[in-house]
Design brief:
Elements lengths: L8 E6 L13 H18 L4 H6 L2 E12 L8 E11 L2 E11 L3 E14 L2 E2 L10
Antiparallel strand pairs: 1-3, 2-5, 3-4, 4-5, 5-6
Pfam family, one: 4HBT_2
Keywords: Hydrolase
Family: Belongs to the 4-hydroxybenzoyl-CoA thioesterase family.
Length: 132
């Protein structure tokens, strides 16, 4: 399992105008989408595809989110989402940091706890050992 000391998994993205509100900044709900996209990319980089999990009746679900908004993103800006993951009992905690590029201003810090259900039963989290 990746730890806080390991190099994070990083993806780069660009804000689309449709993600901004009337004030010209990214609507808060879209930061959740950015974090989710980073988690999916992380899983794919480790050979895990959601459609394959669903076919096997394995479901990864968000159990808890904690977001700290620090600086807004605006339309057209490039940013990166850096993600690390660590197992916490039956959960995997993804830590995401969204940083504006090129100046590297931290815009958001998030902790997202994910659980795993197989055949509709909560697991002890052994699925997350796949990443370590």
């Amino acid at each position: 399992m990746t730890t806080h000391d390991a190099a994070p998994f990083v993806i780069e993205m660009k804000v689309r105008d449709s993600e901004c509100d009337a004030q010209g900044v990214v609507n808060n709900a879209n930061y959740l989408v950015y974090c989710e996209h980073a988690r999916h990319e992380f899983l794919e980089a480790h050979g895990v595809h959601f459609k394959d999990l669903v076919a096997r009746n394995i479901f990864l679900m968000v159990a808890h989110m904690d977001l700290t908004f620090l600086s807004p993103l605006t339309g057209g800006e490039r940013f990166e989402v850096a993600s690390t993951v660590q197992r916490h009992g039956p959960r995997a905690r993804f830590e995401h940091v969204i940083t504006r590029l090129p100046e590297r201003t931290v815009c958001l810090k998030a902790h997202v706890d994910v659980i795993c259900k197989i055949d509709a039963k909560l697991t002890r989290g052994t699925f997350f050992e796949t990443f370590g």
